[in-house]
Each structure stands twice: as structure tokens, then as C-alpha cells.
Write a structure and sequence with these properties.
514 residues, alpha+beta, Beta-Lactamase, six-stranded antiparallel beta sheet, five-stranded mixed beta sheet, 15 helices, 53% helix, disordered N terminus, kinase
């Protein structure tokens, strides 16, 4: 694939002696004939003038080759012929006006040679710079678009009456000068011909992004960056990161360079990461359910046993010689109530582990804490952990996903009970909730366990970091991510040997519960 040709390419390629600049081999006939003619006129004719000054033309012709060696040879030959003609015609003993004229001729030849050499040096540096630019432009894996914005500043004046129409009009004034091969690949074009021209031929960004870019240019910013969708040849869009560089205000050059990075893979990676995080969160909830299976069995077993007991009692009242229908009705009522309680417990556990979309709703803090405690109360009792609740009255509501916030509290309480499992000292767990300023709610889960080692605290919320051999190392990481997704923060305070407190700060909802 070849990059598009531009006027700048033609100009720069004209500096390349290997292709376009004539070598001395192409110029030696006219240069040699001119040199011979000047020499013969100088030595054979009685013209009283600085004829040798015409050798300057020979030096200038030699400079067209672009080679310093050619210029030095031409200047050297001209100087030698000038001196020889003067010596042959006047000799070195005669000093007069011819001597002055020959010095003027020699000075002109020398000055012309120096100027040509300086020009060749500057042209060579420019050529090398142009080659470097062209090599970077063509070989870059980043898409590059070169545009001419010189017509923009002269066309802008005063506040526009119709901003959208003005933006579209100004966009039409921008000229796309060149596009590198990497940009062509991104766009799906085989040639730059369909793109070169006005910006209307190249739907790079939306009108909104272009308007923001135009504002940055008119403010005099040095660059502008944005994420945008660019149009490909097949009509599909391509997500890209744009980095646009502008010339300084005082620079008459209106060249604007747009560097384009294809972010398709990054966006796909972000989506894959989000899916992986959702899967990990689901796995962590399932793992938490496994750890709480004994508590779940106990919770469900209680209403089921009550149903059996009430059913047996009802049968006994029915089998009497004179059935007591009032007692039978009470037994059936208790059966219905216990059945509904069991159904609520099962529904709560299913919601806890169900991989369902996030459902933001107004939540009562006291209810949230109570429902979370019910999930772990049996397990805490089994390991002889005394649970204290301290929920301040009149707390404002929270807005969040009930299941996810329960997951945070359950995970923190289970971690606390496991941390205290091996100690003989009293095991106390305290969950408290109160206001933290006017617009925040603070929920604290603290224990009297051994605490966390100081070297482990900085890594405590990192994924896959755990202090327990059987732990997954994902619970606290997910808890912090969930808290931040709700606009809150999860922190920890621990003193080794004195216990640990996890502090969950959440924003209060603007709308109170009815």
C-alpha cells in the first residue's frame, strides 16, 4: 500500500539528487561551454570589464546538482581560469584597474560558491528532516491525518447566530492534505483519493467532537484529545482515541496533525474485564452461600419443623370424638404462617446468589442490617459469637441494590466470625449504623479478634489476596468494588491483638422513604 502523494512530497522529492536534481553529468555540457566561452572572451577580446564575474553563473549551475563536490570544482576552475587569464593578459607586475576588476571577479566567484554551499547545507538538512518526517509518517502504526486549517481563523468573526450551521460551514473550509498508510488500513481504503479534499469527504468524528476540537483551536490550545467514533469505508464505525495538535497562533502554517489510535481491542478488553468481574462476583456470592449452608439449613428447618408440629396437632384435634375446630383452625393458620416464612427465607437466599441485573431502590438502613444479620445469625451462634446491633433511629434511606449491599455486610460478618474462631477470649461482633454528616451513612462491622498484621493491611483489598488458606481472596475486593459502585467507600481499621473494624460509608438518598 502506498501513501498518498501531495504537493509537499513533490517539493521534498525535488531535493533528492538521486532522482530529480541534475547531476554534473547532465550539466557539464552547458556548464563547460559557458566556461569556455567566458574564458575565450576574457583572454582574447579587448573588452574592458570584469568578464570573469560571469563565472558566477557557472557556479550557480553547478549548485543545481545538489553536490558540494560539484560546486567546489566549478568554483575552483573558475578561480583558476580567472587568474590564468589575468596573468596571460596583464601579468602579475602590472597593478591597476584590471587588478581591481580581477579581485572583484574572484570575490564574486568565492561569495557565490559560499552561498551555494550554504544553500546546499540548508537544503540537505531540510531534506533529511523531510525524510525523517516521511519515514515516521509512512511507517507509524498510529493513524495520522494532516489537515490545513488556515482558512478557519479568517472565516471566524463574532458570535455565530446558528452554531450548528457555522460548525458545518467551517468544517467545509478544512482541507485534508495527507493520510498515512496506517490510517488507510483503519478506514478500510486502498487509496487516499476518496479522502483527500474537504473534511466533508472524511467523516472522522461527530459534529459534537468536531465542535469541541474547533473551540480548542480557536482558544489557542496546543492540543486536544477525545474518544470518538470514526467512519470506515464500509459504513461501520471504529472506536478511536484522537490526539490533535494545533500550530501556535503566531505561526502562519495552518497544519493540524491528527493522531488516531484504534481502541477496538481496548474496548473489547474492558468489556471482557467487566464480564469477568461479574462472573467473579457471582462466584464469590456462590462461595459465600456454601459457607452459609449450615445457617440456611437451620433457618429453613425451623419453619418446616413448626409446620410438621402444627400439622400433627391439628390432626390430633380432628381425631377427637368431638373435633375442636377452633384449635384446628389455629393449627392451620400457624402452618400457613410458617410456610410463608420458609418461602421468604428461600426467596431471600435465591436473590442473594441469583445472577440478576443491578436493581437500584430505596433501602431502609435498619431493614438492610436486620436482613443481613438473619443470614448469618445461626452461624454466629454456632461458633459462640455474641452479636450486638446498634442502628441509630431516623436514618435517611439508601439508594442501591439490596442484594449487593447485603453481600458486603454478610461477607464482613462471616470474615469476622472466622477471624475469632480460634481464640478462647470472648468473641463479640458489633454492627452499628449512624449518620456521618448530613448526606452520608456510616455502617461499621467490628470484632474482638486478633486483628490484621500491619504488613497485610495495604494489600487487604487486592484481588486474590487472602490470609486464610481456604480463602479465595475475592470477597473484600468485590466488597470494595460494590461500595464504590454505590458511590461509597469501604475502609478498615485494625490494631493487632485488639480487633478489626470495617467501615462502610454510603451516600444517603435524596428522596426519603414514604
Amino acid at each position: 500500500m502506498q501513501s498518498s502523494g501531495t504537493a509537499k512530497d513533490e517539493w521534498s522529492s525535488g531535493l533528492r539528487p538521486s532522482h530529480h536534481a541534475p547531476r554534473l553529468g547532465h550539466l557539464w555540457i552547458p556548464a563547460g561551454l559557458l566556461t569556455l566561452a567566458i574564458f575565450l572572451v576574457d583572454i582574447l577580446t579587448p573588452i574592458d570589464g570584469a568578464v570573469a564575474v560571469l563565472y558566477v553563473v557557472v557556479v550557480l549551475i553547478s549548485g543545481r546538482s545538489g553536490r558540494r563536490r560539484d560546486t567546489l570544482i566549478a568554483a575552483g576552475v573558475a578561480i583558476l581560469l580567472t587568474i590564468y587569464a589575468y596573468a596571460d593578459t596583464h601579468g602579475f607586475r602590472h597593478i591597476g584597474s584590471p587588478t581591481l576588476r580581477v579581485f572583484v571577479s574572484l570575490a564574486a566567484i568565492a561569495i557565490a560558491g559560499v552561498l551555494v554551499l550554504q544553500g546546499q547545507t540548508a537544503a540537505g538538512a531540510l531534506l533529511r528532516s523531510e525524510r525523517r518526517y516521511r519515514r515516521m509518517f509512512d511507517a507509524s502504526r498510529i493513524g495520522i491525518v494532516e489537515e490545513d486549517w488556515r482558512a478557519i481563523r479568517s472565516a471566524v468573526g463574532g458570535a455565530p447566530q446558528d452554531r450548528d450551521a457555522t460548525v458545518r460551514r467551517l468544517r467545509g473550509l478544512i482541507r485534508i492534505v495527507d493520510v498515512n498508510p496506517a490510517m488507510l488500513v483503519m478506514l478500510g481504503w486502498d487509496t487516499a483519493a476518496p479522502i483527500i479534499g474537504t473534511a466533508h469527504n472524511f467523516l472522522m468524528v461527530s459534529e459534537r467532537i468536531f465542535a469541541e476540537t474547533l473551540d480548542a483551536y480557536l482558544r489557542g490550545d496546543a492540543f486536544f484529545e477525545a474518544e470518538a467514533e470514526i467512519m470506515r469505508a464500509n459504513g461501520n464505525t471504529l472506536p478511536a482515541l484522537l490526539s490533535i495538535t494545533f500550530p501556535p497562533r503566531e505561526d502562519p502554517d495552518g497544519t493540524v496533525l491528527i493522531f488516531v489510535v484504534d481502541t477496538t481491542e481496548r474496548r473489547q478488553a474492558q468489556h471482557a474485564l467487566l464480564r469477568a468481574q461479574a462472573e467473579l462476583a457471582h462466584a464469590a456470592r456462590t462461595a459465600t452461600l456454601g459457607e452459609l449452608s449450615a445457617s440456611i439449613a437451620h433457618e429453613v428447618n425451623q419453619p418446616l419443623m413448626a409446620v410438621v408440629t402444627s400439622g400433627e396437632a391439628g390432626l390430633r384435634w380432628l381425631r377427637r370424638d368431638e373435633p375442636d375446630l377452633a384449635e384446628v383452625e389455629q393449627s392451620i393458620t400457624r402452618i400457613v404462617a410458617e410456610g410463608r416464612r420458609a418461602s421468604q427465607i428461600v426467596a431471600r437466599i435465591r436473590s442473594f446468589v441469583k445472577k440478576a441485573p443491578v436493581q437500584m431502590e430505596l433501602l431502609d438502613v435498619a431493614t438492610l442490617v436486620e436482613d443481613s444479620v438473619l443470614l448469618v445469625e445461626s452461624e454466629l451462634s454456632t461458633v459462640h459469637v455474641v452479636l450486638d446491633r446498634a442502628v441509630a433511629p431516623g436514618l435517611p434511606a439508601l439508594r442501591g441494590d439490596r442484594i449487593q449491599l447485603q453481600q458486603i455486610l454478610v461477607n464482613l460478618m462471616v470474615n469476622a466470625s472466622q477471624a475469632m474462631a480460634a481464640q478462647s477470649a470472648p468473641r463479640r461482633l458489633r454492627i452499628a449504623a449512624h449518620r456521618d454528616g448530613e448526606d452520608r451513612i456510616l455502617i461499621t462491622v467490628g470484632d474482638t479478634g486478633p486483628g490484621i498484621a500491619p504488613e497485610d493491611l495495604p494489600r487487604l483489598f487486592e484481588p486474590f489476596f487472602t490470609t486464610r488458606q481456604e480463602g479465595l481472596g475475592m470477597g473484600l475486593a468485590i466488597c470494595r468494588t460494590t461500595a464504590e459502585a454505590h458511590g461509597g467507600r469501604l475502609a478498615v481499621e485494625s490494631c493487632q491483638g485488639e480487633g478489626t473494624a470495617f467501615i462502610l460509608r454510603l451516600p444517603a438518598a435524596e428522596t426519603e422513604l414514604a
